[in-house]
Amino acid sequence: MAGACCKCSVSLSVFKRSLCVAQRSTGGSGSTTSRSLALSGGRLGERGVHTGCCWAARPSALRAVLAYRQPDFLCFSCQEAMSGSLRTCYVYLNQTSRSFAAVIQALDGELRHAVCIFYLVLRALDTVEDDMTIPLEKKVPMLKDFHTYLYQADWCFTESQEKDRQVLADFPTISVEFRNLGQEYRDVISDICHRMGVGMAEFLEKKVGSMKEWDKYCHYVAGLVGIGLSQLFSASRLEDPEVGMDTELANSMGLFLQKTNIIRDYLEDTQQGRAFWPEEAWSQFAGKLEDFAQPKKLESALSCLNLLVTDALHHVPDVIAYLSRLSNQSVFNFCAIPQVMAIATLSVCYNNPMVFQRVVKIRKGQAVTLMMEATSMRAVQSIISQYNQEILQKVSLTDPSRDKTLHILSLIREKSSLSQSTLPSRTQHLSPMYLSAAMLLAALSWQYLSTTAAQAQDTGDMQGHLPL
After folding, report:
1. Which residue in 17, 274, 363, 413 is the catalytic one?
2. Which of 64, 77, 173, 319 is deepest in the core (most CB within 10 A)?
């Protein structure tokens, strides 16, 4: 992303040019800012974020997106220094991740390339998991062995029918750049890919039953992403080793995003025959998960919805603790933006009947504002407090989960209102102009990508399992 990739002198001019490109791209109806935006980092895998899992299920969608000029994310000197295969990887990143492309490319130094490749490897793995045309006897071994393909120069898979099939068809381009990474990055990516593939295979023929199984499933498809990213942050030395070693907090970061997307995507999932709400939760209120879409079941549906939102909120104290440890500005932005969007999404979903009638999303303008503001721990705590209070005001006197909800909201309020004077400012060494330009470009780039993709298809931003 210009302005954040190398802090070079051309960043402001690229920023201005991208601003013009984004403005032209949204000019049509003039209603882009009023359209809903999906959660950044949702279930990227389940359907695409199923975030979550397939993002561009129709071949026409990819062609339509390619018909538009992509904005310049990386400065010219950075682009010229990259190999042709690495430039292609960034093209695939922009094609498959409308939400995370900007913030990934805003990461500092070599970490940017490592996270880009990490994302594409998991996107390819997720595409295999999502493809219902692959028979189980073939899919299971592929998922379990996928990490070995990273070291097979010619391995590719051309039979996929999924929207993101290009990352499988041209996997040699991705794998060669994987092998060009430092050993410390390769070890992390290969290990997470292996563990995730095994976990995905386990849940192919297994429904999410208990709340513990829900946590386990979310760990495989999202918690491992948080753990892997944290280890990459530490491997880059942009963050302390402690960040990569504390797998519990990193896992919570992923679970919070994943659960938020699963909650939000109830209707879309059930209409497509997928069930990710845990049976232990919904069976308390209905005979079938699909029953919640019936108007006469609204009270029961809201009770289950609020129970799951309350469960997801239990990860917020860990999110606050994790973000408080980060010291690099680009890493902080990368981690904080999806998390504040998640709690904003939960605030919209809580006790909201619309969850059972359509996919509920935060407004695009609201999302852009969050991207601009979530650049310091003080700001993040303020945002969390705001949405925590919004949820509190919606808690019903008759809701079965009322006591549990009030308890976790109280804990979050306590954690998010710690003495602000003890919190370090992450922007003290950054020029306000630089930071504003970088974050605004991220927001505009995200808006541009989501707008052009929306013109190609009428689906939500997040359709998969991986929270990237």
Report:
1. 274
2. 319
Look at residues 90, 71, 66 and name the one whose alpha carbon lies nearest to residue 23: 71
Mean pLDDT confidence for 262-268:
93
pLDDT digits (tens, 9 = 90+) for 2-57: 333 443 333 323 223 233 323 333 333 333 222 222 233 333 333 333 333 322 23
334 is catalytic: yes
For the entire predicted model, the pTM comes to: 0.77
Q: Which of 73, 119, 217, 332 is catalytic?
A: 217
- Band of residue 98 on the pLDDT scale cut at 50, 70, 90: low
- Catalytic-role residue among 123, 186, 264, 426: 264
Q: Which of 467, 468, 444 is nearest to 25 (CA)?
A: 444
**What DSSP line would sit under 374-423, residue for residue?**
-SSHHHHHHHHHHHHHHHHHH--TT-TTHHHHHHHHHHHHHHHTS-GGGS
Eight-class DSSP state of 70: P
Which residues touch 360 (CB under 8 Å, ≥6 apart)? Answer: 36, 264, 345, 348, 349, 352, 354
Annotation says 274 is catalytic = yes
